[in-house]
UniProtKB/TrEMBL annotation:
Its main location: membrane. Belongs to the purine-cytosine permease (2.A.39) family. This is Allantoin permease. Residues 1-25 are annotated as: Disordered. Pfam families: Transp_cyt_pur (PF02133). It is found in: Membrane. It is a multi-pass membrane protein. Residues 11-21 have a biased composition (Gly residues). The keyword Transmembrane applies. It comes from Streptomyces corchorusii.
Length: 509
């Protein structure tokens, strides 16, 4: 997964006036800034391109092999993928509405539901998720480089991986520390080239698709289908939902909510849906390819190409992954600030880069397989993120007025400091959710699944063990709990008069 930038954000100086190319590059120093109404511009339609460009990546092809790993047929994998992608990005569209109602990043707007300092808990979870994604993308770029070098006979061993990791990490950290100005100058052409390259890739490897082999794959159980569905949700939209309002916060407050939802969901879903279909056809045609993707998703896809196309494929694939990791560092830095760390944004990004390098070293040099760790990571953090999304979506559905910008930063304001109800609800939904998922392939997560036996679902080895019901349960419990118990609190908040100026009694970011 790669992440989009705000379609109207010009980095350190506010909305774009046609691009960032007219300003000299400098380190962005802004943190959790509030966007003034005078700086809001654009239409919901402008959300399409950043979301579309962010999800045009050859990594989307690998999800075909990931889906078959659940033991299901092509048609089951297709339906689970379409539903998982569409529904999860629709949730992003709903959260994006908060951006045009407010004037701050997603994890600041979340304070309306959790309180100003109570929101530090979901901010930490969001930070962990974004750091995890940047780590995964860096590791993938490293593994892909090594695979291509090996295919070219240039050596793809430990030394190549070490050098590749250093280069990828350096590019990522520098981009994250510099901020949006540098990222935006590179993003447009990387998006275009990646899209064109993906089309070329499809044309070159189309003869590897064998429909008779794909069609012969036997169907799996309902539990395996649900497991694939939840995996698709956590791998796509639920990996974005904690930042979805970041990219709509420059829109005018009177923008169409339906437009924000529709263009966000459509733009984000279109490319993954198309890539998934071809990825399923490729992986279903070759059991060997499907197995290789589990260990090295991008590199395995490169092995199907003629030698002359390996270098351009690897270059653009790696650049796309680096671009996503750079934006993840930017978002994780903001989440860390929202969690209460009082340092400049660029130092938070640098700190996250150090953690990213350590995690990538583990995946590249010590992990048994990529897929086991990846699935464990997505499912484990997918549960609390789903719980947070349930609270956030229900809170947003209950609101009839825009957020009060000043009180989002005041512990004594209308949103409160540390309200217990949303925190307890999130923790309870997470506890139930972790009890209904298993991650046996990742040894450090074998403690999960503790409710499968008490609930009569067959325990950690039963039919429901890998259905990952916990993600859906956490989302549903948190949503219904907030919807049923939060109405009075929201009405009381919205009945109060507008707060004083932003500089009066606010928390220091």
């Amino acid at each position: 997964m790669t992440h989009p930038h705000d379609p109207l954000d010009g980095g350190a100086t506010g909305p774009r006036d046609g691009g960032a190319t007219g300003r000299p590059l400098q380190v962005e120093t802004h943190g959790l800034d509030v966007i003034a109404d005078s700086e809001r511009r654009g239409t919901p339609r402008s959300l399409f391109w950043p979301w579309f460009g962010a999800n045009v990546s050859v990594l989307g092809l690998s999800y075909g092999a990931f889906a078959f790993g659940f033991g299901i047929s092509f048609w089951q994998a297709l339906v689970s993928g379409v539903l998982g992608i569409a529904v999860s990005f629709l949730l992003c569209g709903f959260v994006a509405v908060a951006g045009k109602r407010g004037s701050a990043p997603t994890m600041v707007l979340s304070r309306a539901a959790y309180g100003v300092r109570g929101n530090r808990l979901p901010s930490v979870i969001s930070w962990m998720l974004t750091v995890g994604w940047e780590t995964v993308l860096t590791a993938l770029a490293t593994l892909a480089t090594a695979t291509v070098f090996d295919s070219l006979g240039w050596g793809g061993g430990t030394e190549t991986k070490a050098v590749a990791l250093l280069v990828v990490a350096a590019l990522t950290v520098v981009g994250g520390v510099m901020g949006f100005d540098l990222i935006m100058r590179l993003q447009t052409w990387i998006t275009v080239v990646t899209g064109v390259l993906t089309i070329v890739y499809v044309v070159l490897v189309a003869d590897h698709v064998h429909w008779s082999t794909v069609e012969a794959i036997p169907a799996g159980s309902a539990q395996e289908f649900i497991g694939a569905l939840v995996f698709m949700m956590t791998g796509f939209g639920l990996g974005w939902v904690n930042a979805a309002a970041d990219y709509s916060r420059y829109l005018p407050r009177d923008s169409s909510s339906r437009g924000v939802i529709g263009w966000t969901a459509f733009g984000a879903s279109l490319a993954p849906l198309l890539l998934l279909v071809f990825g399923l056809l490729l992986a279903g045609s070759s059991a060997e390819l499907s197995t290789a993707v589990a260990a090295d998703p991008i590199g395995a896809l490169a092995t199907l190409l003629p030698t002359w196309f390996l270098v351009p494929f690897a270059l653009v694939a790696v650049l796309g992954l680096v671009g996503g990791a750079v934006l993840d560092i930017y978002s994780s830095g903001l989440a860390l600030l929202s969690a209460g760390l009082r340092v400049p944004r660029y130092l938070a990004a640098f700190f996250d880069g150090v953690l990213m390098i350590a995690g990538a070293v583990y995946i590249v040099f010590f992990a048994d397989t990529f897929l086991a760790q990846f699935m464990g990571f997505l499912t484990t953090l997918g549960v609390p993120i789903a719980a947070w999304a349930g609270v956030m979506l229900a809170d947003l559905a209950l609101r009839r007025r825009d957020y009060d910008d000043g009180d989002l930063f005041r512990p004594h304001g209308r949103y409160g400091d540390i309200p217990l109800r949303p925190l307890v609800l999130t923790l309870a939904a997470t506890a139930v959710g972790w009890g209904l998922v298993t991650n046996g392939a990742a040894r450090w997560l074998t403690w999960q699944g503790y409710l499968l036996e008490p609930f009569g679902l067959g325990g950690r080895t039963g039919a429901w063990a890998y259905a990952n019901l916990g993600v859906l349960v956490a989302l549903g419990l948190a949503f219904l709990g907030t919807l049923l118990s939060g109405r009075a609190r929201v009405r009381s908040q919205e009945a109060r008069e507008p707060s004083p100026a932003l500089d009066d009694g606010v928390l220091n970011q």
